[in-house]
UniProtKB/TrEMBL annotation:
SMART domains: AAA
Top-rank taxon, per record: Bacteria
Entry's Gene Ontology molecular function annotations: ATP binding; sequence-specific DNA binding
Example GO BP: regulation of DNA-templated transcription
Keywords, in A-Z order: ATP-binding, DNA-binding, Nucleotide-binding, Transcription, Transcription regulation
Entry-linked InterPro entries: AAA+_ATPase, AAA_lid_NorR, Homeodomain-like_sf, HTH_Fis, P-loop_NTPase, Sigma_54_int, Sigma_54_int_dom_ATP-bd_1, Sigma_54_int_dom_ATP-bd_2
Pfam family, one: AAA_lid_14
Name of the protein in question: Sigma-54-dependent Fis family transcriptional regulator
Length: 430
């Protein structure tokens, strides 16, 4: 079966080089009964790839059993996988058949394998190596001829180093590792996928087929899609059900992209001459500058709400935060202004004296200052300034807030959007 026929049969959309490479490997690993580990972010379609591997294998006429290891409580996962005898635990009124028995002769897809507890990993390793297992509470040895395909959105190598995943099981599962690309790695597929979803949902909901304006299509390509294809599908479904404007413009699409109001949802990959490392730093600086702008706006708003007479601010207030001027960051130029809801919460109960709401300015860490941060990454690079770490940036923001509010912890915590208890703890850790 060629790649195009494979995609049509299993509903895999896209024509990017990254997707082509994955599908070529699927065709290679499907026929032999080899264990496959699928790696990739959440929402990239790992289950669809597992379905394709099963459908191209000699086991395709048997069952494909899908198990989400992260959705099964720790105390039940062994009985779910291997079955349980009557009376093995409270509530076990009958013998229970496990997934390995159900998948005998077919394929068992273990999704989110990184969430499996260590005790269950021991039993899984044994059945992978010998095909033998026993039900929980039983002594009889059973045999299962199930091919295992596992998937994870974690770095299992790091999990092994942290002691959360068995090294021997990792090597047993990773006979063949197939990396499923994120949507950011196959940007050529974003608009065709979105239009395909629009057509599908138009038929499903008997709604008009929506078209994309060129500027909206460009916005979709530049968005980072942290939820990958699952998020793309969700946005297309929302647009079909809720939007009546045709074609879909930037102003209509932008509110549906939940990450657009936060810089993490955008990418600078399309900016000429900017590498991946610089893009991440640029985004970091944008976050810091936005926080600084928000601090200024919140302080001004709190001052207006108090009216200068010491009255408490209302429980909730809507703060209109102007977007900072980032003319040099072209990918963000069309975002406009952002409205954010800021909730003022009383300080949580703590072991320290709540009446002591001030902090001595002299004790504030002076390792960094928000006001001294460059306005853009280009300035930092031009001046040869080192980039602050996240810890240094956090310390600088706390120090700036305390100085601006004359050491008042409660007001500083409100401005930073954290509880007074959290601020107190962070100051103690300095």
């Amino acid at each position: 079966m060629d790649r195009q026929a494979l995609q049509e049969r299993f509903g895999i959309l896209g024509d990017s080089p990254a997707l082509r490479r994955v599908l070529e490997r699927v065709r290679q690993v499907a026929p032999p009964d080899i264990t496959v580990l699928l790696e990739g972010e959440s929402g990239v379609g790992k289950e669809l790839i597992a379905t394709a591997i099963h459908g191209l294998s000699k086991r395709r006429h048997k069952r494909l059993v899908v198990v989400n290891c992260g959705a099964i409580p720790e105390g039940l996962i062994e009985s779910e996988l291997f079955g349980a005898e009557k009376g093995a635990y409270t509530g076990a009124t009958d013998r229970r058949t496990g997934y390995f028995e159900e998948a005998d002769g077919g394929t068992l897809f273990l999704d989110e394998i990184g969430e499996m507890p260590l005790q269950a990993q021991v039993r899984l390793l044994r059945v992978l190596e010998t095909g033998q297992f026993s039900r929980v509470g039983g002594t009889a040895t059973l045999q299962s001829d199930a091919r295992v395909i596992a998937a994870t959105n974690k770095d299992l190598g790091e999990e092994v180093g942290a002691g959360r995943f068995r090294e021997d099981l990792y090597y047993r599962l990773s006979t063949v590792v197939l990396k499923v690309p994120s949507l950011r790695e196959r940007r050529e597929d974003i608009v065709p996928l979105f239009e395909a979803f629009l057509a599908r949902f138009a038929r499903q909901y008997e709604a008009p087929f929506l078209r994309l304006a060129p500027e909206a299509a460009d916005l979709l390509r530049r968005y980072n899609w942290p939820g990958n294809v699952r998020e793309l599908r969700n946005v297309a479904e929302q647009a079909t059900v809720m939007v009546r404007q045709n074609p879909l413009t930037v102003d209509v699409v932008r509110p549906l992209l939940r990450g657009v109001s936060a810089s993490a949802g955008l990418t600078l990959a399309s900016r000429p001459g900017v590498g991946d490392a610089v893009s991440e730093r640029d985004v970091l600086y944008r976050v810091l500058l936005e926080i600084r702008a928000e601090l200024r706006a919140v302080r001004a708003e709190v001052g207006q709400l108090r009216g200068g007479d010491g009255r408490e601010a209302p429980t909730e207030a809507l703060v209109h935060v102007p977007q900072p001027d980032f003319a040099d960051l072209s990918p963000f130029a069309d975002l406009g202004e952002v409205e954010q809801e800021v909730t003022y919460e009383p300080p949580a109960a703590a072991s320290y004296d709540a009446a002591d709401t001030h902090f001595e300015i002299e004790d504030v860490p002076r390792s960094a200052s928000v006001s001294s941060m460059p306005e853009s990454l280009e300035d930092a690079l031009a001046e040869g300034l080192p980039l602050p770490t996240m810890e240094e940036a956090e310390s600088a923001l706390i120090a700036e807030a305390l100085r601006r509010f004359d050491g008042n912890r409660r007001q500083s915590a409100e401005a930073l959007g954290i509880s007074e208890r959290t601020l107190y703890r962070k100051l103690k850790d300095e």
